[in-house]
Amino acid sequence: MEFLLVSDSRTEKNYKIPIQDNFIQATDVGKITLPDASHEDKETSVENARPLRILDQGFENTACMVSSITVMYAVYISSHTILLLTSVISDGHRGEIRLRDLPIEDLFRTYVYEDIMHLLIWEALPSSKQKDNVRTALCQSAIPPETVVNVISAFPQDSETYNMILAGMSAFAFSDSIMGATRHQQKPMFQGNLVKADKAIIRTVAYMAATIALVYCHKRGKKFTNPQPHRSLIGNLLLMMGFIDAESGPDSKVETCLNKLWILYADSEITNSTAAALHAGSSLTDPVSCAIAGLVSGFGPLHGGAIELAYEGFEQIGKVENVGPFMEAVKAKKARLFGYGHRVLKKRDPRAALIKEVMPAEDSTNPLLQIAFEVDRAARKDPYFVERGLHANVDLYGSFPYLALGFEKDIITAVIILSRTPGALAHWRESLVQPVKLWRPQQIYKPTLPN
Predict the structure, then answer these.
(1) What is the DSSP letter of 340?
(2) Are 398 and 420 in a shared domain?
(3) Is the keyword GTP-binding in the record (predicted)?
(4) Which of the residue ranges 272-276, 338-342, 365-369, 413-417 would you say has the lowest mean pLDDT?
């Protein structure tokens, strides 16, 4: 075993902290203490009385759990390497994303979203029968009870999509007696009970899909259509939203494009919204409540909301000729560029290239797409962005395929959050076989001193 050797100059003590898989345990750091915390300075004495801790605002270098679902990292490539079906023409680093250790490029080109959903949650690609079983279960749970319909219908049609979806999901949770029972029993409902958890995961995904479709229809005065058991999750979403009718087959163009888009958004390690869901889940609440916690986070402007804000930024730029002044304003911190930079991937996000492959032909007529291309081109050669490891992420282009397919701006973030929900719930499911540990971050206490 390898060790981190720590010499504490305050006490002249030495410590050996075990290193395993390039991690150290925070509890091992907590073994470093001061023998005497008495001090005239009250602020110092309060903190010195505690074990040594690590301040990591924003969790930039802190892991909160062990996972085998998704990994994102940079890999070095040489000029003659062919990596993940992508021919590389220059030396450097590129971002890599693997779901259950399978490259996202392979999954993107070979499978449909249902396969990836099954892979994330149940650790393996599904058989045809398994896919049919999940379709049937999703369909049964996506038929909304009257309570849910009434709650969403009570909103004015011009209400915020976000608020309506929160209300609809809460109404679904109210209508599910098993979800509600988690708050009224001492024994954990789902911890260690994956059979019950799996059924609850399917219901939660179905509730989210039905809620988004109900909100979409209500805001536009359209009729909601109940799902059909032979259709995929994406196919039923399109049916419920009124993009296709009950008598027609799937819209191959729209459904094919969404299958690829949803694979790109399926999971990205423990994102802010996934962490919010897991934070809620650590209290042993139900998965609908976890999904609501993730939903609240997902609509934030620094997370899923960045997709819509990136597009609105292109609208404000107006034309390609204005990109240069805009980029200068970004560097001067007078403007913000959404869809650029990533907390984990400090090299190019492979999804940013893949999303271009599924952009419908209609996108070529969107002048804002040319602005997005110019923003990316300018940033890729600007030392300010290059030296800071800032590259386009999938959100930069996220709105364009949806708009070309006929989705309006106000519903795009919600649909993308739906595509992320099974991945977040896969992490929740993974936590159910780990020891129960309530997430409870600590703080560094600094009292306000009197003037």
Answers:
(1) B
(2) no
(3) no
(4) 338-342
How far apart, in Å, are the Cα atoms of 224 and each of 108, 218, 237, 358, 401? 31, 8, 10, 28, 24
Annotated catalytic residue: which of 342, 363, 376, 427? 342
Q: What is the pLDDT of residues 272-301, one digit of tens each?
A: 999 999 999 999 999 999 999 999 999 988
**Residues belonging to the chain:** 451
- Residues 365, 426, single domain; the answer is no
Confidence of residue 357 (pLDDT cuts 50, 70, 90): confident
CATH code for position 184: 1.10.580.10
Same domain flag for 179 and 325? no
From the list 218, 286, 395, 427, the catalytic residue is 395
Q: Active site includes 395?
A: yes
The answer to whether 180 and 420 have CB atoms below 8 angstroms apart is: no
Domain that holds residue 42: 2-48
Domain identity same for 424 and 368: no
Number of domains in the chain: 3
113 and 262 assigned to the same domain? yes
